[in-house]
């Protein structure tokens, strides 16, 4: 009986740990091309129509007549497919989603991951310089929760506590 309990406990423990493991939001299959926006801009004619999975930080969001265009500063994705803003940026791209996205939610500074099809490039501007941006027709998107952590730095906590109990 004791062996059965240990086995049951071990099985439940493994299942609980597996449930806590993070899984990617978008399935990555053989059709997804592993290329950065900077590389795609350079090699666009041959990449048009390819599937990509990119993420980054929203620079601008614009609602157009039948779609919403997001200008995104790209960063590499971590294991959860969330943009890793501690890494070096990988260029800018435009993500075009059919329909209306609430620009009050898709604000500059928010992290987003998109999957979709490369449609070519569109002229854009970074400051005063003209630059072509790769354009992704969005098939799926994940707007990540805002990071509410306080700024890094030393924290000191002082307190006096009394514990009663028996």
UniProtKB/TrEMBL annotation:
The keyword Lipoprotein applies. InterPro entries: OMP_Slp (IPR004658). Residues 1-21 form the signal peptide. Keywords: Lipoprotein, Signal. The keyword Lipoprotein applies. One of its GO terms (cellular component) is outer membrane. PANTHER family: OUTER MEMBRANE PROTEIN SLP. This is Outer membrane lipoprotein. It comes from Thiohalorhabdus denitrificans.
């Amino acid at each position: 009986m004791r062996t059965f309990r240990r086995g049951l406990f071990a099985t439940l423990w493994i299942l609980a740990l597996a449930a806590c493991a993070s899984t990617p939001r978008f399935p990555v299959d053989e059709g997804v091309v592993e290329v950065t926006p900077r590389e795609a801009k350079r090699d666009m004619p041959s990449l048009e129509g390819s599937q990509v999975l990119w993420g980054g930080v929203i620079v601008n969001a614009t609602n157009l007549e039948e779609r919403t265009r997001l200008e995104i500063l790209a960063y590499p994705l971590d294991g959860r497919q969330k943009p890793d803003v501690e890494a070096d940026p990988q260029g800018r791209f435009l993500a075009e989603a059919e329909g209306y996205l609430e620009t009050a939610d898709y604000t500059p500074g928010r992290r987003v991951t998109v999957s979709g099809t490369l449609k070519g490039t569109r002229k854009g501007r970074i400051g005063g310089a003209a630059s072509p941006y790769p354009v992704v027709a969005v098939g799926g998107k994940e707007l990540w929760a805002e990071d509410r952590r306080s700024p890094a730095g030393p924290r000191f906590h002082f307190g006096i506590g009394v514990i009663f109990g028996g």
